[in-house]
Sequence to fold (830 residues):
Amino acid sequence: MNAEIVAVGTELLLGQIANTNGAYLAQKLAEIGVNVYYQTVVGDNPKRLEGVLKVAESRSDLVLTIGGLGPTEDDLTKQIVARHLGEPLVTDQAAKTKIDEYAARTGKNLTPNNAKQALKIQHAISLTNHNGFAVGDLYLNQQGASYVLLPGPPAECLMMIDRELIPQLKKQGHQNHVFSSRVMRFIGIGESKLVDDLSDLIDHQTNPTIAPYAKMAEVTLRVTASAVDEDHAETLIQGVVNQILARDGQYFYGYGDDNSLADVVVNQLIERQLSVTAAESLTAGEFQSTIGNVPGVSAVFPGGFVTYANQAKHHLLSIPQTVIDNQGVVSEATAIWMAKQAKAKMKTDIAVSFTGVAGPDELEGQPAGTVWIGIAYRDEEPKAYLYHFTNGRQQVRARSVMAGLDLIRQKLTVH
Amino acid sequence: MNAEIVAVGTELLLGQIANTNGAYLAQKLAEIGVNVYYQTVVGDNPKRLEGVLKVAESRSDLVLTIGGLGPTEDDLTKQIVARHLGEPLVTDQAAKTKIDEYAARTGKNLTPNNAKQALKIQHAISLTNHNGFAVGDLYLNQQGASYVLLPGPPAECLMMIDRELIPQLKKQGHQNHVFSSRVMRFIGIGESKLVDDLSDLIDHQTNPTIAPYAKMAEVTLRVTASAVDEDHAETLIQGVVNQILARDGQYFYGYGDDNSLADVVVNQLIERQLSVTAAESLTAGEFQSTIGNVPGVSAVFPGGFVTYANQAKHHLLSIPQTVIDNQGVVSEATAIWMAKQAKAKMKTDIAVSFTGVAGPDELEGQPAGTVWIGIAYRDEEPKAYLYHFTNGRQQVRARSVMAGLDLIRQKLTVH
Fold:
């Protein structure tokens, strides 16, 4: 069962709005085992839309259109699909009644265009619109591609997908198997290295599949299995997850699409009742702001320092001027002093420090992207680590924050 | 000149990420008069990608692919387009040097996959990647459709579109008439109020057009004119801009798509040699981090305080405990003390302070979103202002930062 999504609308095509409906529909279809191989966006143009439908039919069993079911002149999807299928449009009585009742209740005079929204393709199954008037269609075709017509406004479209389309497709037996997936998140390892470590697993993947994805300063793997039910899919996924963890477990920090390193680290700190502070130079508060975004952080984070200028490092953190003068502000010694002093002044269990060159210009003869991150942990000797980041000021700062979070994560893993 | 965008990537196809690159590219092409009639998304599958390219060529003069230029096995776009065009892949020397230099600087052993990113299609114009390693291509084809290959990660793709692709297309004369646009940025006024103030201008717009767009805590207007050349377009734009400024000039803070309130404010501070600091509670460093992102800020920003817990306000800023106890931590008095003390301790011309309820829970009986922002400016009596923000922790914090920047902007406008 191969499906293709065709989104209709000039606003989408010109980039004035993003095609979030298409992304959602693809996800929901994947979950019931319907493969989406193509998505197309075309404007409100009858000739080009019909051309797109012909291409779609030639390569897909199910064509799902989104948009163009509304009341205005340029809403033409239903008319074009019906003509293309050689079927007339007929009135859906339930949809018509809903429109009439609305008109009666509000005392509005509805135009003939409103009635247009109650039309459906003859022989199609109607898909009720729970958030609007335009009725959707599921046209099952034994001779060629089947068609689904969905409305464009996201509130209408998503509700129709969930409540009408997916249940109908399941009922029609368009569900071979269950798809289930789990996202694994990694920090401190590049995409190429991770893929290299797992190359045999990835190369021989059939079920589950492993899809790597590089994000800012981290890599995710999406492990997806298909099976007869959720339990079997989970068992398959867990098997592969275990193999991956056996090889690169030290870089793994958590599961989930919406998870983040800051969430994981802050929640570990809260759980273990370890307090944290920071002294930030090049990151200028970005580390503290990032942990500050996690609800509940106030239990472990009293506050900290932004010491951008050298005199602030001296003045706020009492770092001896000789250290900065002799070792340089971007140095192991300064990073260690910053962490040590921040921890002492805020009386926390942990302190991290950031000193480096955000760029674009170099500093003390060191190139943009050179960053020292210090960490002081309880009674241990504080340490600092050297990093080289690239790709501009914003990335250098953001990657520094991720690296600082990762240093805390590593400390918590060891202890 | 009809263009088609082909986005490549299974994650896009399956709806795990939205096709924001495609939307952006369509917008930028429209601005130089290149019509996008189709957008297609296809997975990392060689056969299906080649099929999509054949369809695209049959109906478009320019085919722009996004994605699949990375180092992994499933990054195959360049290989497939090159084979399809009958051209070999050759090494782009500048891109290769950049990768080698990175390897040398970081001491990392790069895999052969990394070198793959420096390949370009023979006879193509290279598009430099300012945020990554994968080089892009512009392949001008007299016999058939021309091709553009762009990388998938948004930071790389958007920068390449702006700095490389659009200038190249303009240079190649892929421009029928000139479209020129200017973005005006407003703070402190809502979209509906602004649109209402300008309703007659917006309703009668033909050339230039005025397109409002609401962003987080600000509103932009894009004024777009078409004309025979840039000069004529600019004259048309300036006429409308003047009318808009006459009505709502007090909310206008700057021009440009990539501009930000932080950029404008920091550059004004630098120009006028006024130094700034901050004491942040609920924003936890986000204000300082935001101004810290503007290159050159070190000239006016020595550093500051993150005083998340009450004891930090007392300890780091020497705010009398009685003020916090009697007035509350989320209060006018505390905000004023925070600004006054931060200014005194850092010896700056200006200090802003943030104290409030980020949420999700209430604090001191005050609901999430209640925020006091203080400002101390030179010898003036410090003041604090009350705000009520909505839409969750992240928005409350981000809107607070924007409001703090706007307070500084207003001070600089008066003085």
Remarks:
- The domain at 261-414 of chain A is CATH 3.90.950.20 (Maf protein).
